[in-house]
Amino acid sequence: MIPHNRLLAFAPAGWSSPLVAAAEPANLRETAAGEIRVALGTNWAAMLTDLRRVGPVLSITRNSHAVIGREAQRFQPGTADFDFEFGFWHHARAVHGRKEGRNTFAIEWFDAAGEIHHKTCLTPQSDLAEFADWVNQYQALGEETPREPAVLPRPVDHLTAELADGQLIHRGSVDYVLREAISQGQSLRVIIGNNASVQGHSFTPVGLRISDQWCFIQGDHVGIHLRTRNLAEVLLLATEFPTGRFASLKLYDPEARLVAAIQPPPEADARDWNDFILSRIVTVPSFPSQT
Q: Which of 11, 23, 35, 218 fits a disulfide with 207 by CB distance 3.0 to 4.6 angstroms?
């Protein structure tokens, strides 16, 4: 194992970082705030798969209007909960920071525009020694430069492509559906993503808090932020699943980009789920304005 007590000459007195011992000097960076960063390689599939040895992690996927995070005992790429399009991945870095007196460790995954499309955060239960070894193994090579992402023919789910098959509903229906899910103990599946990363989880929401434009939904090991006040449109669709035809909601931003979807959980009964959704939405024609 890599020694974890190497003192940082450029960090506050007494502060050490396992990332310094794990990385080659050329891959190390320090920010003005004292954050330690290590440039990583681009062997995406192997890097994600090997993260399982780190133990519990918090996986966060985001876009401009929605964020989803889930803490799990083991990161499990390749399951129905994650969909990664590596052609849109560009570079990554490991980060050691300090927040409110605590050490924080994370991996930030970037697209070609320099945006963080996915983030992996260590938890207090994570194996820090294994993480340091993971950083050592997957740090950038000396001659490695980030490649340009491939332009993939991935269909973009724009609002205009869905209007013929769905019905616009008042965006306030989203908050109401979420509140009623808490009240009724109704499980649901929320999917949030971007071109590079998509994450979706089935859970029963137990708490909801609204602050300014954002709505925070809490579940068991799942947290979701939705910018519901700034949604452009919400579309009701009938979606075919192996167990039947189910109502689902798709949420779009002002640029008509899909930012989130609300679907039934795998165990849902079609009649019960459809009754739950359809009795709690209001179609747009009943409202002259959504403002």
A: 218
- Residue 79's pLDDT band, with cuts at 50, 70 and 90, is confident
pLDDT tens readout for residues 172-229: 899 999 999 999 999 999 999 999 999 999 999 999 998 888 999 999 889 999 998 8
Beta-carbon neighbour count of residue 258 at 10 Å? 23
What tokens were used for 79?
A: 């399951």
Q: Which architecture characterizes domain 18-138 according to CATH?
A: 3-Layer(aba) Sandwich (3.40)
Rounded to whole angstroms, the Cα distance separating 23 from 40 reads: 9
**Looking at domain 159-286, does it have CATH number 3.40.50.1370?**
no
The pLDDT tens digits of the residues spanning 242-255 come to 889 999 999 999 88
Q: What is the pLDDT of residues 147-174, one digit of tens each?
A: 555 444 444 455 555 555 788 999 889 9
Give the domain ranges of the chain: 18-138, 159-286
b/e for 193-205, b at 16 or more Cβ within 10 A? bbbbbbbbbbbeb
**SS percent in the chain: helix, strand, coil, step 5:** 25, 40, 35
Strand partners, 203: 188
Label residue 107 left, alpha or beta by phi (over 0 means left) and psi (-120 to 50 means alpha).
Answer: beta
